[in-house]
Please model this.
Amino acid sequence: MKSNKSNEENISVGREGGNFLRLWGALAQGVFPFVMNEVGELTEKNKLFVTVCEAVVKPEMFEYAKRKATGRPPVDHMAVFKAFLFKAVHDVPSTSELVERLYLEPQSRRLCGWMWPEDVPCRSKFSEVNSVFTKMGFTEDWFDEFVRTYAVDEPGGTVCQDSAPIPVRAKAVNSKRRLAELDPDQPDPGSRIEWQAGQDADTALADLPQNCDWGAKRDAHGKPKHWKGIKLHAAVTRDGIPVAVACTSASVHDSQVFIPLMKKATERVGAHVDLADAAYDAEAIRDASVEEGNVPIIDTNARSGGDSGSSQMTAKEREIYKDRSEVERVFAHLIDAHGGRHVRVREPRKVWQHLMYGVLVVAVEQTMRSMMLC
Model:
């Protein structure tokens, strides 16, 4: 890595705050007492669920699903959306188990928006409505709005990037025979990275493949790991709040997603310090980060001719670089506690929708934790 000592004085680590405290005050003084008066005492997870719904869900978006003048009463789409958030909060493994819990648990059912067990749709209807959500794409818009409104107010903090393997039960578009060719230490594919520098984030992300295929990545012990599925990429603040996320095919190199996610993060949280491991060691990435007004601190990959590790960083850079591990903790929390381990859908956009429910929950939960509200 080329240490940029001249930029050291520009490095500042801000503390995220936000309008979330005002939202929490409204919840504590009005919403929670009202809900508990209606459905009884709330568990901590159900309090998190209510907070996620209040912070994210926009009831006006479901006007399209209201009952027309004639015909059969439609399924309550807002209640279904809340049910999928409930599924992510409680890490329910499957939609069938979700439906069963809603039948058997009056409090859970009423929190989602159904009064009686017979009001809860069947599993196939849940899947049908979820397909509508996937096509409309408003979940991503709500995540963007939450980050801008509640998660971060103060620029100048750190944003770290990494990716996590997500196994998917779908047929891989590349053959299993290609496993021998997949090298987790493959050189950075520079041509795409250089092209991304001149494109907006959405265009650059749309160019990346998203189908299920075979991928390779080194684990924490340096051993190569192969899996069939996708990669989830995230840009995360030092408080563990995801501010930009993307899904690609498992075989896509991490470095190809850095620039578009960095641009999204800069747009949402302002100028910041970019932290990344040696997989992102490319001059074009550093140049793009500086061009956006950020300060890149990226580890050195041994193949680039430098010493592996942080030996070329200044003392201040090494201290700030410790924040990079936060993104790995966020991935672990998403996978272990909020649905990342239970991907039962196959189509790429549905996989993305499933993960976005968990990402929304993690964003709200980590915002609460950063303000010591949970």
